[in-house]
Amino acid sequence: MNPKRRPILAGNWKMNMTATQARELASKLIPLVSAVKDRDIVLAPPFTALSAVADAIKGTNVSLAAQNLHWEDKGAFTGEISAEMLLDLGCRYVIIGHSERRQYFGETDESVNKKVKQALKKGLLPILCVGETLAEREAGMLKDIIGRQVTVGLKDISVDDMKKVVIAYEPVWAIGTGKTATPEQANEVHALIRQKVKALYSTEIAEGLRIQYGGSVTPENVSTLMAMPDIDGALVGGASLKPESFAALVNFK
Ligand code: PGA
Questions:
Q1: Residue 1 maps to a domain
Q2: Fewer CB atoms inside 10 Å of the end CB: C or N, the chain?
Q3: Domain total of the chain
């Protein structure tokens, strides 16, 4: 954590929670985090629960995110969701290029870049996800993979727009596996990402960029992760599905 950057804690509910369950989860969470003033709190329910969660968080310190969007404004794209639809439901953020989307739904750095550009054009704040697989790490490709994901993912993003981007570093081998990167391992990659952004933009942009860590973050390990100088938040899957555990995480000391 760096006092210059406001921490951002986001819960990625993935394909969990009906609208009814989501409303209940959000309603239970709100009183547990309402005193938090110095951190951004974000919930990313599935599309079908966005409206219910938007209702539940109205007027609170919790913001809404979607888990994906399409890069076109509208039209014949069966099954897809546009930025305008998300904005209309009250979304402020959108997660883009999560490794599960890259792995199971064929998303590439190029399609991820189109989505980041569309989000920014329409006024949504993108949370761009990057991360290496275990095989890539073991093959010594970490730097190349992260460098490519950052460079291509941010292609043609202006300096002004870059101020609105959040990056989430999620090593694929740590997602949902209970294996967390050590705080040092995570910080090393965060520093690498910051370095890359500095080379692509400027020191000022790099120093202002918020980089979340994701991958088996829990109330038990969040404080040691957040103590690292380049870790500015967490993108949380499993531990965000229970109000008590996500609240404990948000309230880390
Ligand atoms: P996890 O998921 O916390 O369940 O590991 C993190 C993520 O995929 O965003």
A1: no
A2: C
A3: 1
Residue 12: strand, helix, or coil: strand
CA of residue 117 to ligand 1 center, whole Å: 24
Is the pTM for the entire model greater than 0.70?
yes
Q: Is residue 3 part of a domain?
A: no
Helix axes 109-122, 142-153, angle to 10 degrees: 40
Ligand 1 centre distance from Cα of residue 235 (Å) = 7
- List the CATH number of the domain containing 156: 3.20.20.70
Ordered alpha helix ranges (H), 123-155: 134-138, 142-153
Q: What is the pLDDT along the chain (253 residues), one digit of tens a residue?
A: 999 999 999 999 999 999 999 999 999 999 999 999 999 999 999 999 999 999 999 999 999 999 999 999 999 999 999 999 999 999 999 999 999 999 999 999 999 999 999 999 999 999 999 999 999 999 999 999 999 999 999 999 999 999 999 999 999 999 888 888 899 999 999 999 999 999 999 999 999 999 999 999 999 999 999 999 999 999 999 999 999 999 999 999 9
Q: Which atom of ligand 1 is nearest to the CA of 218?
A: 3
- Report the nearest-CA residue for atom 3 of ligand 1: 237
68 in any annotated domain = yes
Cα 109 to averaged position of ligand 1 atoms, centre (Å): 20
Spacing, Cα 174 to ligand 1 middle (Å): 8
Whether 2 is in a domain gets the answer no
* Shortest-distance atom of ligand 1 to CA 238: 4
Mutate to test the pocket of ligand 1, among 175, 220, 245 (most ligand atoms within 8 A of CB): 175
In ligand 1, which atom is closest to the CA atom of 239? 3
Q: Which residues form the catalytic set?
A: 98, 170
Q: Residue 243 is part of which domain span? A: 8-250
- Of 48, 34, 43, 45, the closest CA to residue 11 belongs to 43
